[in-house]
C-alpha cells in the first residue's frame, strides 16, 4: 500500500453481515443468561452499538431476531454430534471402527459438556413451549434439525452402514430422544448404570442397526 494511501474502508455489505451476527450473538447471550423474555430490542442494539434501524434491516421484528438466535444456539449445541456422525459415516474404515466412533458421539451422559448442552436444549424447549409463537418457531427448528439427521442416516443406508429395513427418520428420532432423555441419569447416582455398562448397551443397540453379516 502506498504511504499516502487512505485506510481501507469495509464495504457496507460486509459491515451489515458482521453486525447481523453480532446482533444474533448479543440476543443469544441474553437468552442464555436471562431467558427469552429478557430480550429487548433496545438492549440488543446498545450492546452491539447499532441503531434500531440497523437491526430491522436484518430482522423483521423481535420474533425474527429471537428465531435466528434460537437457531444459532441449537446449531451450536448440536454441531459436535452431527459433525462426528457425518465424519464417521464418511471415513469409518470398518464396522468395528464405525461402532466405536459412533457410540462415543451419540449419547454420553457422563461427559459434562454434552450434558450441559442437552440441559440448554431442554431449557429452550421448555421456555418456547409456553409461548404460542415461539413454540412454532422451535417446532420449525426441531424439524430442521431432524431432517439433517435423517439425511445423515440416509447416507449411512446408501453406504451399507445402516440396514435397509431401518427407517432413517425413526433412527434419527431415536437418537434425538435418547440423547435428551439421557440427562435423567444425572439424578440416579449409584442407582444408574456405569459408563462401561451404558456404552456397552449403546454398542449393542447400534450393532442391531447394521446389515446382517
What is the CATH homologous superfamily assignment of the largest domain? Tetracycline Repressor, domain 2
Overall radius of gyration: 21 Å
How large a portion of the residues is in β-strands, by DSSP E?
under 5%
The unreliable regions are 1-15
CATH topology of the largest domain: Tetracycline Repressor, domain 2
User: Would you count the extended β strands for me?
Assistant: 0
- The CATH class assignment of the largest domain is Mainly Alpha
User: Which CATH architecture of the largest domain is right?
Assistant: Orthogonal Bundle
The tally of structural domains comes to 2
The largest sheet is: none
Which shape, going by the Cα principal axes?
Answer: elongated
- The string of secondary-structure elements, in order, is HHHHHHHHH
The helix tally amounts to 9
**Spatial separation of the terminal alpha carbons:** 65 Å
- Mean of the pLDDT scores? 82
Helix content: over 70%
Structural class: mainly alpha
What key attributes describe this structure?
Arc Repressor Mutant, subunit A, elongated, disordered N terminus, mainly alpha, Tetracycline Repressor, domain 2, 213 residues, 71% helix
Amino acid at each position: 500500500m502506498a504511504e499516502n494511501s487512505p485506510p481501507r474502508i469495509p464495504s457496507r455489505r460486509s459491515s451489515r453481515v458482521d453486525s447481523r451476527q453480532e446482533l444474533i450473538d448479543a440476543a443469544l447471550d441474553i437468552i442464555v443468561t436471562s431467558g427469552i423474555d429478557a430480550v429487548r430490542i433496545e438492549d440488543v442494539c446498545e450492546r452491539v452499538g447499532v441503531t434500531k434501524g440497523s437491526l430491522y434491516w436484518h430482522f423483521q421484528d423481535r420474533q425474527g431476531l429471537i428465531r435466528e438466535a434460537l437457531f444459532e444456539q441449537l446449531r451450536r449445541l448440536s454441531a459436535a454430534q452431527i459433525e462426528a456422525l457425518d465424519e464417521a459415516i464418511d471415513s469409518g474404515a470398518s464396522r468395528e471402527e464405525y461402532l466405536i466412533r459412533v457410540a462415543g458421539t451419540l449419547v454420553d451422559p457422563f461427559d459434562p459438556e454434552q450434558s450441559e448442552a442437552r440441559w440448554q436444549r431442554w431449557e429452550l424447549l421448555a421456555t418456547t413451549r409456553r409461548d404460542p409463537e415461539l413454540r412454532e418457531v422451535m417446532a420449525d427448528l426441531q424439524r430442521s434439525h431432524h431432517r439433517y439427521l435423517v439425511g445423515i442416516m440416509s447416507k449411512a443406508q446408501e453406504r451399507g452402514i445402516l440396514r435397509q429395513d431401518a427407517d432413517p427418520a425413526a433412527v434419527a428420532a431415536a437418537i434425538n430422544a435418547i440423547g435428551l432423555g439421557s440427562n435423567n441419569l444425572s439424578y440416579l447416582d449409584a442407582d444408574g448404570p456405569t459408563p462401561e455398562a451404558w456404552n456397552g448397551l449403546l454398542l449393542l443397540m447400534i450393532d442391531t442397526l447394521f446389515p446382517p453379516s
